[in-house]
Write a structure and sequence with these properties.
The chain contains 6 helices and 4 strands; from the N terminus they run H-H-H-H-H-E-E-E-E-H. With about 160 residues, the protein is α+β, with helices and mostly antiparallel strands. The protein has one domain. It has a 4-stranded antiparallel β-sheet with strand order 3-2-1-4. The N and C termini lie far apart (about 50 Å).
Length: about 160
């Protein structure tokens, strides 16, 4: 019980920017988690943006430092989704909305691999400038099947 009070005090010491990002990421993550169970995926196509070339970020090094806004998006989405399974798509979609709101370009990629039992396993991840923000881990074992790029600066 003491641990939770320590966490609350630590959270209160964070800047407002982090607290707002926490609230935003929590709301978006849970909204997408529920919406993906209730609504057909094709409804989310508009959110994904145009389809692009298959992007494989782990084949190259990030070109520069990760911007603070992108770092905060990745931090809070990872913290909220940890200890939960099968949340990669909800994380990627919530991250896409958060990145768009911050006017930062991002790429949502989908991958597939064959599991040991013969089943297909699907995965989604969010990338910004060669930095994998969500859905990291064993990405090298997945074959990229679709990529959707979004640059909010270019549209306006």
């Amino acid at each position: 019980m003491i641990g939770i009070f320590r966490r609350i005090r630590a959270f209160k010491r964070r800047p407002w920017r982090d607290r707002i990002a926490w609230a935003e990421s929590t709301a978006l993550f849970w909204w997408f988690t529920v919406a993906l169970k209730l609504v057909r995926f094709r409804r989310f196509k508009r959110l994904l943006g145009p389809s692009g070339e298959k992007d494989i970020p782990w084949e190259r090094e990030p070109s520069g430092p990760l911007p603070d806004d992108a770092r905060i998006v990745a931090l809070w989405l990872r913290r909220i989704a940890r200890k939960r399974e099968d949340t990669c798509l909800a994380q990627a979609l919530a991250g896409r909305v958060m990145m768009r709101r911050r006017r930062l370009p991002s790429t949502v990629s989908f991958g597939v691999r064959e599991a040991a039992d013969g089943d297909l396993k699907f995965h989604a991840w969010l990338v910004h400038d060669d930095w994998v923000l969500t859905g990291g881990g064993a990405l090298r074992s997945f074959s990229v099947i679709a990529t959707f790029y979004d640059d909010p600066k270019r549209r306006r």
